[in-house]
Amino acid sequence: MAEPITVIGLLMEVLEDDLYAVDLDRLSIVPGRNVSLRRSAARLSELGGNAYVLARGLFQMDTAGDLSGRTTTFLAPFGPPATSGRHPALRVRCVDTGLRDDDPDGQFFARCLGTVQGWDRLSGQLIVNPLAIFRRRPPRHAGPRPVPRKSGRLRAMDEAPVWVVLARSIAHVVDEPAFVATVLDQGTGLMRGLSVGGDQDQALRAAMSKALTEPAAELPPARPGLVLCCGLEPARVRKQLATLLKPDVPPVHSEGIDEAEDIIDSVIGRLSGRDQPDEFPTPDAWRALMAATADYARAQPWVRWPDDVLAEVGITVDGGSNRYLASVIGASGVQRGLNLFPDGRLPALDHRSGAPLMPAGTLIVWLDELSGGDDVAPEFIGKAQRYGWPGELPLMPTYLSFGRQGPADLSNADVRRLTVAVGAVVDQSRRPTAAPVGRARRGNVPVDADAVGTYILRMVR
């Protein structure tokens, strides 16, 4: 017998063109090819009876729902309160015998596939008969931040999308002149177009052509109503767009969006052979890591800490705990930085090449002198500059993790753990005397604007 998720996958293939994709987080309703919405702001109340919907977002159990003990009702809000003061919402009632997990406490992220029973005017809720509802982890990254409109209202479904356009040189990846360009959908973070070309204009033109002619997940191709350029001259983008949209070219403006820059960093990282995380670090997490690493560069712990001396660092952050062996490097003058080896596992040597094989879960920060000819990838330089790296420091950080397949870019959890570990070593190095081997020292390190991680550090040899 097929697993339920397999059956739902088959249903999705059949219904793809006949359902409404409802994103409860971003307040959007995207109709399939065979269905449509009236030309007005997207509202749940417009979805007709028996329509198929695929809704994703934040749900919560309705404790005031069915008291019979036979069904469980979940609610998911959609937008600001109506004039009645009630929040428009999706209402899903599940038969308890069909629930495979215990009722979740509080809010949770989920995907729900179902059919519309109707709109309840009194409660302001769209009643959906579920075919399946799957709990999932929160969205990995939200992509670029929505840009507020002058009218203060959300973009209606029949308004043109906003593009975010970026382009970067990848000559350091392919060893010849080349550029990668991407077009992101500002409202969803989805990639509408991606292209590599021998020059920047070629790459831009090809990426924008794809955005105009090819769908991106549930988004159909569409002409933009506004184009935002990250790190690009608007005149250059406008010129290439004019070759595709003559004579009606939308407004093109310059706009710095950190999350958009992080997405193209990820594209370049993948082209460079680094695995990419499921969950991108948040801007606040990057800023905290940059601040901790700048303190590390100023403290210069490698002056007092020989390369062969290790410390055990226990890290607790976001409710989870991890243990690493910390190795401060730089005393030999070859490479400055910090290596974190998980669970006491040190690198092994490749028998053929003699190169060290990093254990999966290793976290690394290297500090290199740009003026000394050290090779730091441009995406790492750009990230450091975006997130507050002090311009007066002669060193520039490179951050890596290691998985089973080799080097990878940091996940959000990696960044937060590394921030605590770097802060722990800085605290240790600033003390007038080193702790005796085996004696624990404890402390706290901020990991973003609202959270703090804790550490326990012991010198082991």
Write the layout of secondary structure elements.
Elements: H1 4-15, E1 19-23, E2 28-31, E3 52-61, E4 71-77, E5 89-95, E6 107-120, E7 125-136, E8 162-169, H2 171-174, E9 179-185, E10 191-197, H3 200-213, E11 226-229, H4 234-245, E12 252-254, H5 258-271, H6 283-299, E13 310-317, E14 320-329, E15 336-342, E16 348-349, E17 356-357, E18 363-369, H7 378-386, E19 395-403, E20 406-408, H8 412-430, E21 440-446, E22 452-459
Parallel strand pairs: 1-3, 5-7, 8-11, 11-12
Antiparallel strand pairs: 1-2, 3-4, 3-6, 4-5, 6-7, 8-9, 9-10, 13-14, 13-22, 14-15, 15-18, 16-17, 18-19, 19-20, 21-22
Helix pairs in contact: 3-4, 5-7, 6-8
Give an overview of the whole structure.
By secondary structure, the chain is α+β, with helices and mostly antiparallel strands. It has three domains: 4-136, Nucleic acid-binding proteins (OB fold (Dihydrolipoamide Acetyltransferase, E2P)), CATH 2.40.50; 162-271, Ribonuclease H-like superfamily/Ribonuclease H (Nucleotidyltransferase, domain 5), CATH 3.30.420; 283-459, no CATH class. 22% of the residues lie in helices and 33% in strands. The strands form four sheets. An eight-stranded antiparallel β-sheet has the order 20-19-18-15-14-13-22-21. Strands 3-4-5-7-6 form a five-stranded mixed beta barrel. Strands 10-9-8-11-12 form a five-stranded mixed β-sheet, sandwiched between helices. A hairpin with a 4-residue loop joins strand 6 (107-120) and strand 7 (125-136). Helix 3 crosses helix 4 (234-245) and helix 6 runs parallel beside helix 8. The protein is globular. Mean pLDDT is 82; it is low at 1-7 and 137-158.
